[in-house]
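For the sake of transparency, this paper describes our internal protein records without simplification. The tokens are whole numbers drawn from a learned vocabulary of local backbone shapes. One such record is reproduced below, unchanged from the form in which we store it.

. . .
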Amino acid sequence: MEHTEEELKRFIDACTTARRIVETMPELPKGIKPRHIHVIDAIVLTEQQKGKVQVSDISRHLNVTMPSVTRLVRELEEQGVLVKYPDREDGRNVLLKLTALGQEYYQRYVHDYYQELGQRLEEISRADLKTAVQTINKVYGCMKEK
């Protein structure tokens, strides 16, 4: 199916608006980047599921290479957001745990933010939200192929 130039322009305008939505997220502390928040979230989710968290778990969860995750973990450790410690069951493994600061960041930049976002989006149905996600991902897939 061919799309008109006007339809495509409206879609690109909507993508620009979507970027503005991301820009309404709360300002992060100095030295903390959005990808750090993704790591913090992945640590909490993995800990809830498995009870303990390794760097490889974060790599799988985020679908990011081990060197990239290792760098992000090091940066978060330097910022005092997480600590690494040996696994008591297998000393060869290094585990990750959020510090009180990391837990505070999770609460503010993940939990509280998504609670507020959910309230703001109450008038949008789950089906519409799901369709938007699927459509954006499909378009990105088409654009990436070229």
Notes: The first helix runs from residue 5 to 22.
